[in-house]
Amino acid sequence: MLGGIDPVVLIAALMVASVPILLAAIGELVVEKAGVLNLGVEGMMIMGAICGFATAVSTGSVWLGFVGGALGGAGLSLIFAFLTQIMLANQTATGLALTLFGLGFSSLIGQGYGGMKPPPIGPVPFGPLADLPVLGKILFSHDPMVYVSIAVVAATAWFLKKTRKGLILKAVGENHDAAHALGYKVVRIRVLAILFGGALAGLGGSYVSLVRVPQWTDGITAGAGWIALAIVVFGSWKPWRVLLGAWLFGGITVLQLNMQAAGSWLPVQYLSMSPYLITILVLVVMSADRSRAAMNAPAALGKNFQASR
Amino acid sequence: MNRRTLLTSVAAATAVASLPRIALAQAPVKVGYIYVGPKNDGGWSQHHAEAVAKAKAHFGDKVEIVEQETVPEGADAERVMTQMALGGAQLIFATSFGYMEPTLNVAGKFPNVKFEHATGYKTAPNMSAYNARFYEGRAVCGTIAGRMTKSNKIGYIASFPIPEVIQGINSTYIHAKKVNPAVEIKVVWAFTWFDPAKEADATQALIDQGCDVVLAHTDSTAPLATLKKAGAYGFGQAGDMIEYAPTPRLSSVIDEWAPYYIERIQALLDGTWASQNVWYGIKEGMVGIGAISDAVPAEVKAEAEALRDSIAAGTYKPFTGPLNKQDGSAWLADGEVAGDDVLSGLSFYVEGIDAEIPK
Q1: Which residue, A225, A239, B96, B123, has fewest beta-carbon neighbours within 10 Å?
Q2: Nearest-CA residue of chain A relative to B40?
Q3: CA B321 from chain center: how many Å?
Q4: Which pLDDT value is given to residue A293?
Q5: CB distance A260–B195 less than 8 Å?
């Protein structure tokens, strides 16, 4: 016990709390690695939240709900892909517009879904493993999406580091002209990366509306997409560091609520702002070494590509 | 179609569209409503909107309702209300505590428009305050919570440190303690009225801290959804939230705004509207207690209903001495009842609550 808080319960809770931001951040990491800055994560998440919720309610299957959420997020990202990759619109402005559009459109779709309950999802049955003293609660007591999110991190890390396709994706993000000269389809690769990012953001959003809350209301993601964007920078575009960042952020959020409930002597305001303070601190520490920070960011991030030859 | 013909036709269409408005000089009375959350939040804002729909059905063509949902408390609220007033609204209802100062400002700018502010305490010649004694409902819920908790730990998700919320925490604790002397209350401040994800996290944190009955002073149904997963108990807030009965929803504190809205709009139509400051409770029907679910044992149900009835009859007031302040100093002597002047500005916990109010 740590000031009235059980660390085992805390770790288990933070793993669940960080799933949406983790999924969205990993998706955005792949998008940014391909040299595209999509600030529409929040919009794609909330579209995923409503599409996933609507699908789950109408089919009665939470798994189809997750698929629907991913499709909803990917569908919205397709608009972004068309505008920035084909029409060469400014990525920052388009991304912001995507968030605003997603928030409004999800509210429109969600009109009839207030007060409904999605089908429930239980923890993965690990049998006797779940009864282990400490590890059981931390490792074996979660719903399937917690494990899926960690598997996605591992798969992304492997893809970017060990596969030829991953190297090509990174090459496109570092120098699109050189990649084009080598014969890689820059636009096609970027569109696929954007779709992947949209699908994961949508999946993260549907986790909020199907498992974490679980219900639909307007604005349910409440800024999680922005946190995901910050975590990508925080994790310096490395998948495992992004996982760490998501857990740190999720952990502090859970910790501050638990400390309040445990009757901490710290004033509530300091606890509430602690996640943001720590983000700023870590960003400052990280960017202190300028050469390394600059090395990690994809060189062509946010730059549009037009084949001139 | 070139640009010029397009512009001409748009202008023509606008002119045609504005014709009927001129013809309808005897337009219905326009009444505006602003809500802090979406109209389908399942709680506070939805319940206001439903009451407004009842008022609209009551008056029919005589009244035109303009509504704006998800209006942030602060400068945005002032802008929205100004627009409503400029748009011809004659009576504007601002339905959240944080709209108090913005409403006061807009009321100063539009002396001929009437304003009604919910759950506040400031008034002006053209601005009324209306509030409900939610703490009376909390007394009933606190009694049930005190009887139903097995861990002797009750959780309370607080929104903002304002008198209404502090009344609720105190009332819950006093009445839980009355039936269960071993009970403790744990408070988490969410600093929001409506953020389902945060409300769910706060509920989970309270459950992780050993609470098995949690009351919410926020607006969504997220706490009940989380309590259901954990097998703990909770209460409906603002709305009945009957879809979560029999568990986790044991009962609810229901806000009944419709009669007040009908009364005030009627006063406007009659020309008898005057600024006032009302604080109605179970007795006047502004606070309702939702049906107590079957998960509650019959004797506890009877006890809670007896408390409700004694409050309705006016024979019992929830803040009746002997009560001490948190620091142990005397507040109310035996049998002494707290006055509305003290309650409406309540800023301290009663003795026994081990927590601090954020400053």
Answers
A1: B123
A2: A114
A3: 26
A4: 57
A5: no
Mean pLDDT across the stretch A40-64?
Answer: 96
Length in residues, chain A:
309
Contact predicate A137/A8, CB 8 Å: yes
Q: Which of B41, B70, B358 sits opposite A267 (nearest CB)?
A: B358
Say which of A217, A221, A260 has its CB closest to residue B42: A217
Return phi, psi of residue B111, to 5°: -65, -20
CA trace torsion A82, A88, A90, A93 (10° rounding): -20
Residue with tokens 């501050």: A256
- Total Cβ atoms within 10 A of residue A290: 8
Q: How far apart are CA A192 and CA A230, in angstroms?
A: 22
Which tokens belong to B110?
Answer: 């539009």
CA of B240 vs chain A CAs: smallest distance (Å): 12
Residues of B in contact with A110 (CB under 8 A): 40
pLDDT score, position B24: 46
- Phi and psi dihedrals of A111, rounded to 5? -50, -45
Q: Which residues make Cβ contacts (< 8 Å) with residue B273, sequence separation at least 6?
A: B91, B114, B264, B267
For helices A19-33 and A144-162, give the axis angle rounded to 10 degrees. 20
Please tell me the distance in Å from B233's CA to the nearest CA on chain A. Answer: 16
Q: By CA distance, what is B214's nearest residue in A?
A: A261
What are the structural domain ranges in chain A? 7-296
Q: Are B157 and B218 in contact (CB under 8 A)?
A: yes
Count CB pairs under 8 A between chains A and B: 105
ipTM: 0.78
Q: What distance in Å separates the CA atoms of residue B145 and residue B212, rounded to the nearest whole number?
A: 9
pLDDT tens track for B244-263? 888 899 999 999 999 999 99
Token pair listed for A243: 């996982």
Partnered with residue B158 across adjacent β-strands are B189
Specify the CATH architecture of the domain A7-296.
Orthogonal Bundle (1.10)
Distance CA A56, CA A116 (A): 11
DSSP class of A212: I
**B66 interfacial to chain A (CB closer than 8 Å):** no
Beta carbons within 8 Å of B2's beta carbon, 6+ residues apart: none
CB distance A202 to A72 below 8 Å: yes
Give pLDDT tens digits for B173-225: 999 999 999 999 999 998 888 888 889 989 999 998 899 999 999 988 889 98
> Which of A120, A222, A262 is closest, CB to CB, to B195?
A222
Amino acid at A232: V
Residue A57 has what pLDDT? 94
Query: Residue B349: what residue type?
Result: Y
List, for residues A170-226, the tens digit of each pLDDT value: 999 999 999 999 999 999 999 999 999 999 999 999 999 999 888 888 888 888 898
Give the minimum alpha-carbon distance from A103 to chain B in angstroms, rounded to a whole number.
12
Q: What percent of chain A has pLDDT over 90?
A: 56
CA terminus-to-terminus distance, chain A? 65
Task: Give the number of C-alpha atoms closer than 13 A to the C-alpha of residue A81, restricted to the C-beta side.
Answer: 23
